[in-house]
Amino acid sequence: MIGAMPAPPAAERRQYPRLHLPEARTGTLGLTAAVRLVDVSPAGVRIEHAHPLTPGQACVLDVPLAEGELHLRGRVVWCQLHHITTEAAGRSVQYHSGVLLAARAETPPALLLGRAATAS
Q: Which of 48, 49, 72, 104 has minimal CB crowding within 10 Å?
């Protein structure tokens, strides 16, 4: 019997490299939903949050900076369950979502945030 041929690698669809933020950077989505920025690029941002988001949903991500607040307008492109943690205090659910920015940032958001970031 001949073994199955491995599938060819999936084509990379990203237009820009993602920049992983080495330090926690938080913000809010809308008026109250707390989020953590996971990685960023000139075209979008991946966020971690506690409740599922709907793909296609318009959003504003507000990120506090020393100089004021950065407002990133965009649209949720995808949302997936990232992990579930069960402890004595209860269950914690975390989702990851990709947000496509409404206008491509001239400077990657990671640099706007004043943080060193690593490209992937």
A: 104
